[in-house]
Amino acid sequence: MTDSPTQDHPPDDSGLWARVDDYFAVLAPEDDALVATRRRADEAGLPDIAVAPNQGKLLQLLATLTGARRVLEIGTLGGYSTLWLTRALPADGRVVTLELEQHHAQVARESLDAAGVGERVDVLVGPAADSLSALAEQDVEPFDLVFVDADKQQLALYLERTLPLVRPGAVVVVDNVVRLGAVVEPDHPDDRVQGVRRMVDLLTDHPRFDATVVQTVGVKGYDGFALLRVLP
Ligand SMILES: C[S@@+](CC[C@H](N)C(=O)[O-])C[C@H]1O[C@@H](n2cnc3c(N)ncnc32)[C@H](O)[C@@H]1O
Prior knowledge:
With 232 residues, this protein is an alpha/beta fold. Helices cover 38% and strands 22% of the residues. It has one domain: Rossmann fold (3-Layer(aba) Sandwich).
């Protein structure tokens, strides 16, 4: 930790990161429905691993900036990020969100219905890899934006199975890919770290994905996300 952080000596101080997020929170305010969605998830015993409000707002802005009409989310939890994303869509927009746990999906469904957006969201329950294959078999309309926020072990598989489901130019966001910096260790024992490293191998010189990774700090600590564009 440094007393007076500068660009040359950035702070390593999670208390300060949280305070800075609090300061900027005025730009990403939560309304009653977002607060209720977080609360319902908490009361239902879901883990506290949803995106932070500023990250939800970033997703919402990305969806707006890309003119997304169809959004695919992998990892629903209690529907918090789903709600941010759904609100970016035009009237005929749709979010399809994939969740392994029936209990999580049920909590999300209740919150999304209570927020008044339930009719525009499909929550598909089951292993995301299977749901992605099923969507491809159904030949669904292509997605414009994908948010990948489930188990990290299968990131490469999710990206491969996402490709047939998106339009050229689609944007993909993959959350939590820095793992407190553990990703730099080739032999790290955590299989989530290895999942990220397999994703990076896949993305390196991939003919259909153009990608970058940005490290982040904030109320959720130190991590980062990958931003991908799907090439024609
Ligand atoms: C980090 S949480 C998602 C948080 C949510 N996107 C948000 O920000 O509000 C990850 C979710 O992915 C789900 N998950 C884990 N493995 C999965 C799998 N194989 N298929 C589908 N969902 C999975 C977990 O049950 C959990 O609800």
